[in-house]
Specification:
This protein is of the alpha+beta class and 501 residues long. The chain has three domains: 2-161 and 490-500, Adenine-n6-DNA-methyltransferase TaqI, Chain A, domain 2 (Alpha-Beta Complex); 167-221 and 415-468; 222-412, DNA methylase specificity domains (Adenine-n6-DNA-methyltransferase TaqI, Chain A, domain 2), CATH 3.90.220. Helix content is 38%, strand content 18%. The strands form seven sheets. The protein has a five-stranded mixed sheet, with no helix packed on it. The protein has a five-stranded mixed sheet with strand order 17-24-21-22-19. A four-stranded antiparallel sheet has the order 3-11-8-9.
Length: 501
């Protein structure tokens, strides 16, 4: 970690607009108005999921509940109350008010404790994140960025008159409240669209989406028996692992081993291995640069599948060379191959837009003419989070090959597959467009939030009153109060601090 400039130098550079202030205001060091209290490295042998106080780590500072509880001996100085200001000191340097009940301040999290009534706690909280963002931007790091408590203490906060602080806080809370209501409505709509999307997929593979279409085309469609008779089992690669004996039910169109759900009229449950060649991928050795440098063969990794989840993938982040392909177990798979991430990040699905290779984190299916790759992709998408039930493991879920090779799919005629895909693509495109618009509106609200803060800190959000006590006089009062506190005997200060906790 290396912070190239002191916080005051970052402010004086003029690079960060939210660090600017009104000319009539002053500045005050954070350590003059608040204490920075670092967390403690609690012993892991006292960690629990069942009893004790919440142990607040960096990822927990804005959560009501924490991953771990602590039941060992503790000191009052590390207690955190509801509403306390916390800062994560690694990573993104996020600031939040603790929303939970009494908790414990873990290492690499600090608590900001206001020590004066001359600088409003609410105003202090509003100021902090822009300064932390600027410090984060100025901090170079090879891995994770680290923030020191000394740097936080040296933040030069804006100092408006005390009455103006009150007016600013009141106005910001009013404006932010309206923004929050709007954002909450947008997020609710977004979640409802996610539910609708999964319901749409589920209905598609229960035959409900094309129920009327089947009635209208009953005289033209193959029966389930005819579909089964037309299947010529696909030849699988040698060395395939045995199918699992476990029975796992999916939400709609998939099941591991003998399905118990009845097939829609005209559909048939079919082992996926009978209509698609199942394989996996491989990663050529990273110790051989010649396998990767200037490669021209697209190679799908987890990041590619995440980016292209639920769609056709034509370009990948990494490419391998022909030499890499020939000297590894990687194989060039044909256009139209369906890929499912089965480990690391489980459940991402995409289709190869051209011949490609994949890592070993994927199960792949090259479909016969009886199965549309898009139909299979949407069947896998229909499972959503439920597809993880095909896997094993609590912290690191993996879908193993015995389960993959035991998957059955509920299969309609090729004609109905085409109609289902067309209906889904039309409906899902509409959903995605609406979600995109919601995301834009949420992003706009954040821009507006930053604009409000910029006006507030530049003295333009509320009127300035010439009758207010000048910031220079307020600064003198703060300095005098700080000096008096420093002269107070240590025992008295410690007792007062314990009482405040």
């Amino acid at each position: 970690m290396a912070l190239g400039r002191r916080p005051i130098e970052i402010v004086e550079s003029g690079t960060y607009q939210l660090l600017m202030k009104s000319e009539s205001w002053g500045r005050v060091w954070l350590h003059q108005v608040a204490e920075v209290r670092n967390g403690y490295a609690f012993q892991s042998k006292f960690f629990s999921h069942d009893s004790g106080l919440p142990l607040i780590r960096i990822r927990d500072i804005a959560k009501i509940e924490t991953e771990n509880l602590y039941s060992g001996k503790l000191e009052n100085e590390f207690l955190v109350k509801t509403g306390d200001i916390l800062i994560g000191m690694d990573g993104d340097f996020k600031c939040a008010r603790w929303p939970g009940n009494i908790g414990l301040l873990n290492q690499r999290v600090c608590k900001i404790i206001p020590r004066t009534e001359l600088y409003l706690e609410k105003f202090l909280y509003l100021c902090l994140q822009p300064y932390l963002n600027a410090i984060n931007q100025e901090t170079s790091s090879i891995t994770v960025k680290h923030l020191s408590s000394r740097t936080i203490e040296d933040i030069p906060l804006p100092l408006p008159p005390l009455n103006e602080q009150h007016r600013i806080v009141t106005k910001i809370e009013e404006l932010f409240s309206e923004l929050d209501k709007g954002v909450e409505s947008l997020k609710t709509a977004r979640e409802q669209l996610k539910v609708y999307r999964q319901a749409l997929l589920k209905h598609a593979f229960e035959g409900k989406l094309t129920e009327e279409w089947r009635k209208e085309n009953a005289d033209k469609l193959e029966t389930a028996g005819q579909i089964l008779k037309s299947i010529i089992p696909v030849q699988q690669p040698k060395g395939g692992r045995a199918a699992t004996k476990d029975k796992i039910e999916g939400v709609a169109g998939l099941a591991v081993n003998t399905p118990s759900k009845p097939a829609p009229d005209g559909w048939a449950w079919v082992p996926l291995l009978n209509i698609a060649r199942q394989e996996t991928g491989h990663t050529p050795s990273r110790n051989h640069p010649e396998y990767w440098e200037n490669g021209n063969i697209s190679w799908i990794g987890i990041s590619d599948a995440r980016t292209h989840h639920g769609s056709v993938i034509n370009e990948t982040n990494q490419k391998i060379t022909q030499l890499g392909l020939e000297n590894s177990s990687a194989r060039l798979l044909p256009e139209g191959t369906v890929c499912l991430s089965r480990t690391a990040s489980v459940g991402y699905v995409c289709i190869m837009g051209k011949d490609m290779a994949t890592s070993q984190d994927f199960a792949t299916w090259s479909c016969s003419e009886l199965l549309s790759p898009l139909f299979l992709m949407y069947a896998l998408l229909a499972e959503g989070e439920e597809i993880k039930r095909f896997g094993r493991g609590t912290t690191h879920t993996t879908i193993y090959f015995p389960e993959i090779r035991a998957i059955n799919i509920c299969l309609p005629s090729k004609a109905e597959q085409k109609v289902i895909v067309e209906k889904l693509e039309k409906a899902l495109t509409s959903v995605e467009n609406t979600v995109d618009e919601i995301e834009k509106q949420i992003a706009k609200s954040e821009v507006l939030r930053q604009s409000i803060l910029k006006k507030a800190f530049s003295g333009q959000l509320v009127p300035q009153d010439p009758n207010d006590e000048p910031a220079s006089v307020l600064l003198e009062r703060i300095a005098r109060e700080k000096a008096e506190t420093a002269a107070t005997p240590r025992k008295s200060r410690a007792a007062k601090a314990a009482h405040n906790v």
